[in-house]
Write a structure and sequence with these properties.
Length: 285
């Protein structure tokens, strides 16, 4: 009988746990914007915001339906005209200031042109671009007042003077991203894995500069038939565009062209020159 009593106790404990977990999951969901099964209420609490020109993406742990409503109201008031997506997940045993801190963090980022922020249980990490440094500083002071000594804020902001400066920043970031050529296997459109890092940086720039299109132009050396050179150059440019599209950039923002060997930048009479002429060029438009 002791063994049977132990079995009954285990079953009872499992049933109680199941009821508690079910009650927690049913509380405070976001009305269709959640991603069921992608996160558990007992996972570590995380709250992230991706703000880009014309787009806002919020995902994270919330305390209640009232918390969700408060966040959505800030989106309506502060990010009018912005395409927003939200994925809220219920949490348990959240820090006392979690709800207030997440609301004020979202409110603060409305004073940026572009920003990425992640709030963990003990810190906030945020970086971005703003043209209104005074408003941003004031809102972050408001945020600090709400989190006390339990949180730390790691922030990195670039201050620009006008939208024109934002365009200049996008051009500069693109030039810094292309630190080395995009390489392919010989006579092929297969991108070498060593070039993935460069393309990933270009995807980051494209995410930060959503108002810009990116021109991707393929070039070849002068070896062989020019018709083949042009076909290969455009096929390689398209392979690069496909990689960037898989990274989340809309195909409509990518302009693909192949110019064959018509625009050399080095001497086609040498092996080194031909290697330089086989290239992919990127331009923001």
């Amino acid at each position: 009988m002791p063994g049977r009593n132990l079995q009954l106790a285990v079953v009872f404990l499992l049933l109680v746990c199941g009821v508690l977990i079910s009650a927690t999951i049913d509380h405070g969901t976001s009305g269709g914007n959640s991603a069921p099964g992608s996160h558990s209420a007992v996972d570590a609490a995380v709250f992230s915001i991706q703000h880009r020109p014309g787009h806002l993406d919020i995902e994270g742990t919330i305390a209640s339906s009232a918390h969700e409503s408060g966040l959505l109201q800030i989106v309506t008031d502060q990010f009018a005209g912005t395409d927003s997506q939200t994925r809220f997940l219920p949490g348990v045993a959240l820090a006392e200031q979690w709800e207030t801190a997440s609301r004020r963090l979202l409110y603060s980022l409305a004073a940026t042109e572009s920003a990425t922020a992640t709030m963990h249980e003990d810190r906030i990490e945020v970086r971005g671009v703003t043209s209104d440094a005074n408003t941003l500083a004031s809102r972050f002071e408001f945020l600090r007042d709400s989190i006390g000594d339990g949180f730390t804020i790691e922030q990195d902001f670039i201050v620009i003077s006008s939208p024109v400066s934002l365009d200049a920043l996008c051009y500069r970031n693109l030039s810094h991203a292309v630190t080395e050529p995009v390489l392919f296997r010989q006579s092929s459109t297969d991108i070498r894995t060593s070039s993935y890092a460069v393309l990933d940086k270009i995807i980051e720039v494209a995410n930060d500069c959503r108002d810009s299109a990116i021109a991707i132009t393929g070039h070849s050396d002068a070896s062989g038939n020019e018709t083949w050179n042009r076909l290969l150059s455009v096929a390689r440019a398209q392979a690069v565009a496909s990689y960037i599209t898989r990274g989340g950039i809309e195909p409509a923002r990518l302009q693909v062209e192949g110019l064959g060997s018509t625009v050399p930048i080095a001497d086609n009479e040498t092996a080194q020159g031909r290697s330089i002429n086989r290239r992919i060029e990127f331009e923001l438009r």
